[in-house]
Amino acid sequence: MYKKGEILLKKSYLFPTYNKFPITLVKGEQSSLWDDKGNSYLDFMTGLAVCNLGHVPQKVKLRIQEQLDQLWHVSNLFHLPTQEALAEKLASISCTDLVFFCNSGAEANEAAIKCARRYHQRVLGNKRYEIITFEQSFHGRTLATLTATGQQKVKEGYLPLPEGFVHAVFNDIQSVQSKITDKTAAIMLELVQGESGVHLADQAFVSELSNLCEQHGILLIIDEVQTGIGRTGKMFAYEHYGIEPDIITLAKGLASGLPIGAMMGKEKLRDAFSIGSHASTFGGSPLPTAAGLATIETLIEDDLFERATKAGAYALDELKKVLKANPIVCDVRGLGLLIGIELTEVVNPIIQKLHQSGLLVLPGGTHVIRFMPSLYVTHDEIDLAIRILCKVLREQRGEVI
Ligand SMILES: *Cc1c(COP(=O)(O)O)cnc(C)c1O
């Protein structure tokens, strides 16, 4: 296909939507990745919280191979065993009862927005349509979900945007109260805002938010696209907060790297979507749903919640310890294995140096380095990642001074 290093030199035929790192990855196994020149990397980004079981997890691979021999695709107008089984599994491990499958996080959130509006307009017969979301949030790149997203940069050049989205201040219940009107259909939020830099929702804020939703007949939508599937040490981040969302959206980690999205809702939402009111050609097709089932079974069998909780606590403690006196580190925070290290300066040059030193990590916003390793990550791997981080931060300070 391409010779070593060649891809970086040739003209690309892709739309330039990504500022790609100068690395061509060709192979992965557990927490390791290799580039086309044979260099290895410790992977602490897991394809953006997608490969929660590490790269090419064996049980999932075997299930995909079995399905590959059986059937790849038929229309959603037929019953599909893997799709039914994954929906039943998701209902049994969550506070929700029904699932709609699609192909990505944005589509799952789009389905949640549509479901919320239709529930009010068709089931309850009112005229509510507004969705309250939060500043610094991220909900996807379709026109509706980028409008829901509380960041200006994803909206530029796309006017006019769809109506019916308002933004409140995260962790500020008064701000939410001031946005509620007789048009409010739903409140949608991430419990840990990942994309913008690992901002955790406060317990008191989430409890009050849940009460507000109940009082005002507003649906509570939790976007678990990044936090779901064990990432925070529980299957879903909402379990940390003692609440029951009406709708949960999932994608990233659900099928270990095969494209899938899911919008899950409570029984009362059943009639929001009637026949023909929503659909997706590929949604819930056999390969990703087989992979999703195997992913969830593996998480439960290997008790990865316990592992991720312990590994996350260890990483957070160690990071806090070694970075405490570092003048360019202003905060270290996280939930489970979704960890953010906030610096006083922009992180992009540092991220590049971390990559060159063999540690793959991602930024969150402009000032945060995100650690999102596999849920199987070992203490040795965490120690190694922290050593590399400290070395690069030391060099950075040397250069600044
Ligand atoms: C990544 C992400 C999305 C969008 O998912 P896509 O699969 O890229 O469409 C939505 N919400 C959150 C919280 C995310 O992290």
Automatic annotation (TrEMBL):
This is Acetylornithine aminotransferase. Homodimer. PANTHER family: ACETYLORNITHINE AMINOTRANSFERASE, MITOCHONDRIAL (PTHR11986:SF79), AMINOTRANSFERASE CLASS III (PTHR11986). The lineage of its organism: Bacteria, Bacillati, Bacillota, Bacilli, Bacillales. Pyridoxal 5'-phosphate binds at G105, A106, F138, D223, E224, V225, Q226, T281. It is found in: Cytoplasm. The gene is argD. It catalyses: N(2)-acetyl-L-ornithine + 2-oxoglutarate = N-acetyl-L-glutamate 5-semialdehyde + L-glutamate. Its EC number is 2.6.1.11. Binds 1 pyridoxal phosphate per subunit. May also have succinyldiaminopimelate aminotransferase activity, thus carrying out the corresponding step in lysine biosynthesis. The modification N6-(pyridoxal phosphate)lysine is found at K252. Pathway: Amino-acid biosynthesis; L-arginine biosynthesis; N(2)-acetyl-L-ornithine from L-glutamate: step 4/4. SUPFAM superfamilies: PLP-dependent transferases. InterPro entries: AcOrn/SuccOrn_fam, Aminotrans_3, Aminotrans_3_PPA_site, Class-III_PLP-dep_AT, PyrdxlP-dep_Trfase, PyrdxlP-dep_Trfase_major, PyrdxlP-dep_Trfase_small. Signal peptide: none annotated. Its main location: cytoplasm. GO terms for molecular function: N2-acetyl-L-ornithine:2-oxoglutarate 5-aminotransferase activity.
